[in-house]
């Protein structure tokens, strides 16, 4: 759990550094409190809507629009907190190999991207406020307020980054980055660069440059979308910000913070440990029993969390020490944890499927059913790989029938959560967002029964809001890129290339999977789904492939990318918790990566048969 109090190394600091750290702590605590309050308000609004509809056959006028506006506010106020978090999606594989001076130069350029993002959000939102008229018909509030939230978020990004660098005694570096960002921000509107490259390709190349210097991926996307204006982009600055806001102004996406909240509350309530005990009673006595327990726990935890990042962090903290104690090489233990955590974004509820449904209008319920099948295939392949690669030194005695029954009863609350979500969505009783809110309420009640303290609950709401903000900002800042890809007809170009391979669905599916595997090397799954889901889905459908099954394959493919360098988000999460080098984890990942690729082949073959 993230603490609300920031700590620093015990070294001599200047009065300026001390003042900056005090200010930074105060601002971060304020933003954290706002995020926690906004998430609580969102939960209350959605739950109230459910109660009114089913209890009183009525509704709350404007509830969906109000919730959407507050979600935009959550993203805005949480964005400054995520600058240095794992979900900022910084790629340090290149910068870590540079000399000290090279690392310093890369850090300055990375800060330039972040400062430009702050400027774009601040001034772009201000220009929208001037240009935009109209009143929300349901809320009775000026429309510009929704865009103004991101303006405040941009302002706080500038302040927080500035205070961070001052507190680190990097004032010269901050000044250089500030001058570069300001000069580039002003120059873009006054220059035009002729090139044969389309604006979307230019945007992609600039974003890639930002990624290589370890800039946060959302900031790289946003700054690149603005710089692309000088290369003929049809999106002026206000439109870049407007596209970002529009990209996250979807009621469906509110399910993301609710599922994150449910997963965190599940762990705090001790239910996650009950899942571990139940999994251990079933498979703990087998060969590689603890590793198989880790896998089965991921399968069961997937039915309640929906977040692979959350599961990776939980598994690293829970299983890594015990795996090493039982004779597992540390890197192999971490690789097993990272590989099994992939299942959380495949087995329902799945945040990845929510993002895909929002990007392509596929049925959430149908995707969730497909996720069960895909998750089972992936788990089976991983179980075989673990069985073949692990020689556990310490075995666990076989659990008795009474022990298994007792552990199963203890895990019932977790199973109940999965039933509420999946059955509720599939049968159309509640919407996806409402099911996620009910899941969050369910786990909140379990946490209160488990006597989780007020301070811990506050930390959980704060951290969940921060994580949801980071994911939401990525979704929003990918929207200008997706728009330019559509304008430049990149989908048509790719479609023509794929069509050139013939009408054979086998060849088309193989080609798309190969492209997605390459995409997964450099893009986070959320961004990849948003950018490539709408492009590849029509191609697959035209080839006669079932759209829902293709959507499942796309998510599975890109989730495998969470284990591959250079981005490999799940590996970096495990590395951060265990303090193991990411390079060692990537190397140890090989057999489990192959097992997941084999599961992808099985799913592809099944898609061609149905």
Characterization of the model:
With 610 residues, this protein is mainly α. It folds into two domains: 15-249, no CATH class; 255-608, no CATH class. 74% of the residues lie in helices and 0% in strands. The protein contains 26 helices and no strands. The protein has helices at residues 15-56, 63-78, 100-131, 144-167, 171-188, 199-212, 217-227, 237-248, 255-268, 271-283, 289-302, 308-318, 320-325, 330-341, 351-360, 364-389, 401-426, 432-449, 454-487, 490-499, 505-522, 525-542, 547-560, 569-578, 582-588, 590-609. The longest helix has 42 residues, at 15-56. It is globular, with a radius of gyration of 24 Å. Mean pLDDT is 85; it is low at 1-5.
Radius of gyration: 24 Å
Which structural class is indicated by helix and strand composition?
mainly alpha
Q: Note the total helix count.
A: 26
Poorly predicted sequence stretches spanning 5 or more consecutive residues = 1-5
Number of strands: 0
The major pleated sheet works out as: none
Total domain count: 2
How would you spell out the order of helices and strands? HHHHHHHHHHHHHHHHHHHHHHHHHH
Task: Provide the β-strand percentage band.
Answer: under 5%
Helix content: over 70%
Mean pLDDT: 85
Termini Cα gap = 44 Å
Q: Using the alpha-carbon principal axes, give the shape.
A: globular
